[in-house]
Design brief:
The protein starts with a helix and ends in a 6-residue tail after the last helix. It has a 7-stranded antiparallel beta sheet with strand order 1-7-6-5-4-3-2, covered by helices on one side. It has 150 residues and is α+β, with helices and mostly antiparallel strands. The protein has 4 helices and 7 strands, in the order αβααββββββα. InterPro entries: Polyketide_cyclase/dehydratase (IPR019587), START-like_dom_sf (IPR023393). This is Polyketide cyclase. It comes from Rhodococcoides trifolii.
């Protein structure tokens, strides 16, 4: 599990930060974000479920394979899953990024909706690559996150 202190100290020179407010309640948004197969448009990737979680389908230990364009596929594994409030994951196999992690924090809003605070951190072995990936990822998530739930 990644605590806020650990997230802030994790190596990741490039960070993507996106916020979005849904009109749907946290349980609806959590279910949409937790379902691996829903996330393809969010990342501009083809996503395949590799493994269900240790105690629930999309919980801790659940793994998805992502394939983005011609790049090599990589796996992301859920490391924390707190129903209706928090999902954390990391790259667990492959990929060109280093130290990649993601954190999705869901907070109920006063009107019954959900505020999402989404941060992704990573580095890349080639100079300039992390910055390019960061811009593409920020654009893709910002453009498509609202389609996951109303």
């Amino acid at each position: 599990m990644f605590s806020p202190d650990i997230i802030e100290s994790m190596p990741a020179p490039t960070r993507v930060h996106v916020t979005h407010t849904f009109t749907s309640p946290p349980d609806t948004v959590f279910a949409a974000l937790g379902e691996h197969e829903n996330l393809g448009p969010l990342f501009g990737a083809k996503i395949t479920r590799v493994r269900d979680g240790d105690t629930s389908r999309n919980g801790v230990g659940s793994t998805r394979a992502l394939k983005v364009g011609p790049l090599p596929a990589f796996d992301e594994t859920v490391t924390t899953s707190e129903p209706n409030s928090l999902i954390e994951y990391r790259i667990s196999k492959g990929g060109i990024l280093r130290g990649h992690w993601g954190k999705q924090v869901l907070t109920p809003t006063a009107d019954g909706g959900t505020a999402l605070d989404y941060t992704v951190g990573f580095d890349a072995p080639l100079p300039g690559l992390a910055a390019v990936v960061g811009k593409v990822l920020t654009s893709s998530i910002s453009k498509n996150v609202g389609t996951l739930a109303p």
